[in-house]
Amino acid sequence: MSLERSDVEKIAHLARLAIDEDKVESYAADLSKILGLVEQMDAIDTEGVVPMAHPLHMSQRLRADEVTETDQREKYQRNAPQVESGLYLVPKVIE
Amino acid sequence: MQWEIVIGLEVHAQLATKSKIFSGAATTFGAEPNSQACSVDLGLPGVLPVLNREVVTMAVQFGRAIEAELGYRSVFARKNYFYPDLPKGYQISQFELPIVGRGDVDIELDDGTIKRVGVTRAHLEEDAGKSLHEEFQDCTGVDLNRAGTPLLEIVSEPDMRSAKEAVAYARKIHQIVQYLGICDGNMQEGSFRCDANVSVRPMGQEALGTRAEVKNLNSFRFLEKAINYEVERQIDVIDGGGKVKQETRLYDAGKNETRSMRSKEEANDYRYFPDPDLLPVEFDEAFVAEVTKDLPEMPDAKRVRLIEQYGLKVTEAVTLISCRTLADYYEAAAESAGDAKLAANWVLGDLLGALNKSCLKIETSPVTPVMLGGMIQRIVDNTISGKIAKQVFEAMWAGEGDADAIIEAKGLKQITDSGAIEKIVDEVIAANPNQAEQFRAGKEKMLGFFVGQVMKQSKGKANPQQVNELLRSKLAPS
Would you state the torsion angle of the CA atoms of residues B396, B397, B398, B403, taken in this order, to the nearest 10 degrees? Predict the structure, then answer.
C-alpha cells in the first residue's frame, strides 16, 4: 500500500504538524515503506492468537482511592507562558 | 408522512471517587482553578497514569446492576484530538474492549407498560478540563481541575422512540448510579451529562436515518425539549427536500433550539490505539463477588417490596423510590410511626411540599424521619387530630422541637373527655337556636355549621368523631 500526498497532508493536519511542502513526497515514500512492513506481518496466519494490547505479560496494578497530591499550582504555573487568576491562558479557541 | 423517531443516549456519569482516575489529585467540585491539577493531569513530560481501584469497582457494580456482560479483560486506548482543555493531546478512554458490555434496563412508559432498552456498553475514561472563553479578550482560560476526573460513559442502543422514552431511560440510569452511590447525579454541576443521538425515518423503513448528536443537555427537561426540537428540525429539513447532516449540535436552552457546533464539517478521526502507558485491566470472579456483595437494593426491587411490605399504591411507591434517600426516609418514618399508609401520606404530601417550598433536599430536611414518625404516632393514638397535626408539623419544621414537646407547649392535645366536649356542644346549641331548629326541620347540612362552631370553640382540639356523635344525639328531634 502506498500513501498519496493527500494522505500525508491529512495525517499531518490531524497531528497538528507543520511540514515542508517539498518534503511531502519523501514522507509519503517513507511512510509507505512502514506500511509495507505491516503488510508483511499481515500475511502471517494469526488464527487463534489473542490480540496483544501490551508487550508486557502483566495486568494493570491498581492504586487505592486516596488523595496524595497537594496543590502545587504556583510551581506548575511558573512553567506556563501566560496565566491569570489561576487559569492557564492559551490563544483564543474559536468554536 | 408518518415519521418514526429513533434515539440513542450517551450518558457520562462522573464517578464519585475521592481522587482522579489516573492520579492522586482531589476531585472536589468548585475548588480554586487548577488547584487540583497535578503533573499527571497537566500532561507534563515523564508522568505515568496509575489506575484508581475504586473506579474499576464502581464500573463493575454498575455492570452487575444492569446485568451486563463484564469485561474481565479491558484495555485503555488513546483517543487523539487537540483542544486546550486536554493537555496531552489525547483522552485516555476505552475502545475495543470496554469494562462493561451488553446489558439492559427496563423503563416504564406512560401507559404503564414496561419497555426494555439495551445498553450497548459502558466504558471508563478521563474527563477533560474546562475552557473559559468569555472572561478574556484574545485568550481562552483553561482550568484543569476536572481533567482526569473518572467518567463512566454509558452508551445505549438506538432503542428509544420518543423524547419521553429517552427521558425515562435517562432517569432510570440516573436512579441506578445514585442508588449504587457511584455518582452524585448532580446535573447542574455536570456530574451526570446526557448526549442524544437523534434521527428520524419514514414509519416502516428499516434503515436508520442520518443522526445528529445533541449536546449540552443539563436537565431532564432540556433533554426532552431538545429532542422534540431536533425531531421537528430534521422533519422540516427532509420535507423541504434537504438532507440531514451528520453533525454535533448544541442545545441552547434560552432559545430552545439546537445549532450546529462545528462550522467546518470534519469527520471525527480519533485514531484510537492501545495506550502503552497502561496495561490491560484484569479481574476475576472473586473480585466481582467481593465488590458486589453489599450492593444496595435496586429501584425496581425496592418498588415491588414497598408495595408488598407497606401496602402502598403503585403511584406512591414510584415517587418514593425516585430517589434512594427519599425511600430510606420513608422507611424510617414508617417504622417509627407504626402506620405505613399514614406515613406515606405525610411524606408525599406535607413533607415533599415543605421541601419544595423551601428548596431543600430530603437529606437536609429539618424534620427527621423519627420526628415525623413520632408525630404520626400521636395521630394514631388520638392525642391530636390530623388537622392539628398540620400545625404540629409546621412547628417542627420551624425548629420548635419534636411533636410531643410542641403538643405540650402549645396545649394542642385533643379533647377526648366527653364531658368537656359535651359542655361545648351544649353551649353552641344554646347560642344558635335558629340553626338548631333548621337542622331539626331536616336541613342536614346545618350539622357542618355546628361541627365548625364546636371545633372553633375548642380551638380545633375536640375529637371530631366525638363531636359528630354528640351533636347528632343532642340535635335529634325530641
Answer: 0
Given a contact cutoff of 8 angstroms between Cβ atoms, the answer to whether B155 and B100 are in contact is no
Q: Angle B444-B449-B450 (CA atoms, 0-180°, nearest 5)? A: 95
**CA–CA gap between residue B68 and residue B101 (Å, rounded):** 6
Question: Whole-angstrom Cα distance, residue B324 to residue B308?
Answer: 18
**Domain B418-475 in CATH 1.10.10.410:** yes
Confidence (pTM): 0.84
DSSP code for B213 = E
Separation between Cα atoms, residue B206 and residue B158, nearest integer Å: 13
State the span(s) of chain B assigned CATH 1.10.10.410. Answer: 418-475
**Angle formed by the axes of helices B386-397 and B403-410, nearest 10°:** 110
**Average pLDDT, consecutive stretches of 10 residues, N- to C-terminus, chain B (478 residues):** 95 98 96 97 96 98 97 96 93 97 94 94 97 88 97 98 97 96 94 96 94 92 97 96 92 92 64 95 97 93 95 94 93 95 96 93 94 94 88 94 90 80 87 86 85 86 84 79
- The minimum CA-CA distance between A54 and chain B, rounded to whole Å, is 6
Local structure of B72: helix, strand or coil? coil
The whole-angstrom distance between residue B178's C-alpha and the CA centroid of its chain comes to 8
Instruction: Copy the grid coordinates of residue B476.
Output: 335529634
Question: Taking CA atoms, what residue in B is nearest to A67?
Answer: B24
Contact A3, A28 (CB under 8 A): yes
A74 touches chain B (CB under 8 A): no
Q: Does A69 touch chain B (CB under 8 A)?
A: yes
The 10 Å Cβ neighbour count of residue B471 is 23
Q: Do A88 and B142 touch (CB under 8 A)?
A: yes
Decide if B35 and A76 are in contact by the 8 Å CB cutoff.
no
DSSP B281: E
> For residue A92, which residues of chain B lie inside 8 Å, CB to CB?
133, 136, 138-140
Contact at CB, A90 and B132, closer than 8 angstroms:
no
Cβ-contact B9, B208 below 8 angstroms? no
CA gap A52, B375 in Å, rounded: 65
**pLDDT score, position B59:** 98
CB-based contact B140 A71, cutoff 8 Å = no
How many angstroms separate the CA atoms of B375 and B333, rounded?
10
In a mutagenesis test of the B interface, which of A14, A67, A74, A82 is the best target, namely the one with the most B β-carbons within 10 Å?
A67
Asked if B21 and B51 touch (Cβ cutoff 8 Å), the reply is yes
Residue B202 DSSP SS3? strand
**What is B157-201 written as a DSSP string?**
-S-B-SHHHHHHHHHHHHHHHHHHTS----TTTTSEEEEEEEEEE
Return the closest-CA partner of residue B161 out of B331, B7, B345. B7
Say how many C-beta atoms besides its own lie within 10 A of residue B240's C-beta: 7
Say whether the ipTM exceeds 0.95. no
Helix H or strand E segment including B51 = strand B51-52
Q: Do A60 and B279 touch (CB under 8 A)?
A: yes
